[in-house]
Amino acid sequence: MLFTADHDEPRRILQKFIAAEINPFVDEWESNGIFPAHELFKKLGDLGFLGLNKPVEFGGQGLDYSYALMMAEELGAIKCGGVPMAIGVQTDMATPALARFGSDEVRREFLSPAIAGDAVACVGVSEPGAGSDVASIKTQARSDGDDYVINGGKMWITNGVQADWICLLANTSDDQVHRNKSLICVPMKAKGVQVARKLDKMGMRSSDTAQIFFDNVRVPKRNRIGEEGKGFTYQMVQSRRSGCGARPPASRRMNSSSPRPSNTRAIERRSESRSSTTRPSISSWRRCRPRSNCCARWSTARPRRWSRAKT
Question: 0.90 exceeded by the pTM?
Answer without folding.
Answer: no
